[in-house]
Amino acid sequence: MCAQEEEIKKMLETKRESLHVLILQHGINSIKTLKCSEELDELIFKEEMILLNKKASTNK
Fold it and tell me: Burial letters for 5-29: b for 16+ Cβ neighbours within 10 Å, e otherwise?
């Protein structure tokens, strides 16, 4: 696993924890919760792109 993957995994874990706390504190439809959810989606997308690129490079 490369350093970039490790960093994204740590960021994902932190963002998931933050999202859970925000849901408990502010509810599911608060601006803070929705913003955190969007950021989490972006991180998940980045992780998927890294994995796809890695898979594509190993299939060459």
Answer: eeebeebeeebeebbeebbeeeeee
